[in-house]
Write a structure and sequence with these properties.
This protein has a 5-stranded mixed beta sheet, sandwiched between helices. The protein has helices spanning 72-91, 104-113, 116-119, 135-143; strands at residues 10-19, 23-31, 33-41, 53-55, 61-63, 97-101, 122-126. A hairpin with a 3-residue loop joins strand 1 (10-19) and strand 2 (23-31). Helix 1 crosses helix 2 (104-113). With 144 residues, it is α/β, with parallel strands linked by helices. It has a single domain, classed as Nucleotidyltransferase, domain 5. InterPro entries: Host_attachment_protein. Residues 67-78 have a biased composition (Basic and acidic residues). This is Host attachment protein. Residues 53-78 are annotated as: Disordered.
C-alpha cells in the first residue's frame, strides 16, 4: 500500500510491530510504501465458566483457588515468539530498525526477549494497544 505523503518518513526499511496479548502484526515501511509481512496469533486459553468457582448456599458465586489461573506461561511463550520473529526479520535484512507498539506488560516482555544486537535496532516503543486501528492510523501513532 502506498503511504500518504505526510507519513512517508521512513528513508530506510523499518519494521513496524503491533501486538495485543494474543496477536501480532508485522509491517515493513520504507519510502512511500507499507507492506504487510507477517502475523502471529495464539489461541486464547478457553476456560469453563464454572472452572474453579462454586455457588455458595446464599446463591452467590465464590471463586476457588484455581479460578484465576496465572496467564504468565502463555504470555511468555507468545512474547518470545514475537521477539524471535522481530530478530529474524532484522537479521535477514528486511529492515534496519523496528518500532513496537503493545500493551505495557507485553511490550516489556518482548523487549526482555530481544537479543542485544536487535535491541540496538529498536527506534521507538509505544505502550498502547493499536491492534484495532487500520495501518495508516498505526503509522501516524508510531511516527508521532
Amino acid at each position: 500500500m502506498k503511504l500518504p505523503r505526510e507519513l512517508q518518513r521512513f528513508p530506510d526499511p523499518t519494521l513496524l510491530v503491533t501486538t495485543d496479548e494474543e496477536r501480532a502484526n508485522f509491517w515493513l515501511a520504507g519510502g512511500d510504501s507499507l507492506e504487510t509481512l507477517d502475523g502471529i496469533a495464539i489461541a486464547p486459553e478457553l476456560k469453563s465458566d464454572r472452572e474453579g468457582a462454586f455457588t455458595s448456599v446464599d446463591g452467590s458465586r465464590v471463586a476457588g483457588p484455581s479460578a484465576d489461573r496465572h496467564d504468565t506461561p502463555r504470555k511468555e511463550k507468545f512474547t518470545k515468539q514475537v521477539a524471535e520473529r522481530i530478530a529474524t526479520l532484522i537479521r535477514e535484512g528486511h529492515a534496519t530498525g523496528v518500532r513496537i507498539a503493545s500493551l505495557p506488560e507485553i511490550l516489556h516482555r518482548i523487549e526482555a526477549h530481544l537479543p542485544e544486537d536487535v535491541k540496538k535496532k529498536v527506534l521507538g516503543t509505544t505502550p498502547k494497544d493499536l491492534m484495532k486501528m487500520n495501518e495508516v492510523d498505526v503509522v501516524k501513532v508510531l511516527i508521532s
